[in-house]
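Lab notes, practical 5.
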Amino acid sequence: MFTGLVERVGAVASRRGGKDGARLRIECGAMAGGLGAGESVAVDGVCLTVIRTGDRWFETEIHPETLRCTVLGERAEGSRVNLERAVRAEDRLGGHLVQGHVDGVGTLLEIGPEGEGRRARVAAPPGLRRYLAVKGSVALDGVSLTIASLGAEDFEVALIPHTLAHTTLGDWSVPRRINVEVDLIAKYVERLLESWKSDAASAGARG
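Output from the prediction step:
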């Protein structure tokens, strides 16, 4: 589990493999000192397992399913990536509950200045708009953000200067594909309502 608060911006130092699976070495500076094999790290919002560490880097393997469902397949050597270690039970939950299980890939439609920050408009991945709400939470490339407005097929987020300076969101330009994870609580509420409706319908049929 993660919070969507990026600890560090790293970089893809090397990449091996193709569509059938890949192995990445991520340069992560001093963060590597606190990592061990088997630990989880969110890379651009994707939960990955550390398989090897070294001086200022760690390596991870990416399953073909992950390559199909996220934008990690597009991260070439030299690409900057957002990094966050798994949250500990005693940590403050400063962002929101993020699993690192990307729900879909969105597309950056527009980004421009707003005050001292920027405002970005993103096309919602198919089937995910129903989980979005104004002032609700969404994780974009692993960054916890608040939805500022909601359109028929897109949504907007406001990016403060700190976010732009300390994540890869400061690099964003059109066009760009983005990992999107919707709010976990919204998905559970939907599932509970589906079960409730199903139980109610079954009870009605029996009655």
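Observations recorded by the TA: The CA atoms of residues 107 and 177 lie 5 Å apart. The chain is about 15% helix and 40% strand.
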